[in-house]
Amino acid sequence: MDDKTASIEQLKQIMDRFVSERDWEPFHDPKNLSASIAIEAAELMEHFQWLRTDELAAVKDDPEAMVAIREEIADVFAYVLSFASTMNIDLASAFAAKMERNAIKYPAEKFKGRFR
After folding, report:
1. Of 59, 72, 98, 109, which one's alpha carbon is 20 to 30 angstroms from that of 46?
2. What is the pTM of this model?
3. Nearest 5°: phi and psi at 59?
4. What pLDDT, in 10s, does the model give residues 59-115?
5. 112: phi > 0 → left, psi -120 to 50 → alpha, else beta; which?
6. What is the torsional sign of CA 52, 45, 56, 113?
7. Is residue 48 included in any domain, yes or no?
8. Structurally, how many domains does the chain consist of?
9. How far apart are CA 110 and CA 84, in angstroms?
């Protein structure tokens, strides 16, 4: 399974099955899941803490670091999938709608190459 072949629905089902097999549904409420997303995102950030901008590219070439980073981003994604499932959020439509709003808020002709 990879990004080109997996659907979001398939991934949500995998996560739902994982949670269900462990009877973790009582713990997978919106508060706990949103906190877990933030906690795992912070753990991802730790891999870049204290690195200078000129050191960032080397991270991709460090196999050990990349294993750890992949694990952290997978944890974030797992909790996002579980949160979306718990809250009945269609991630693809939520993402598409948000990108449409962002395109209006940040028109390319005004924001190209800058963030303000």
Report:
1. 98
2. 0.91
3. -60, -40
4. 999 999 999 999 999 999 999 999 999 999 999 999 999 999 999 999 999 999 987
5. beta
6. negative
7. yes
8. 1
9. 33
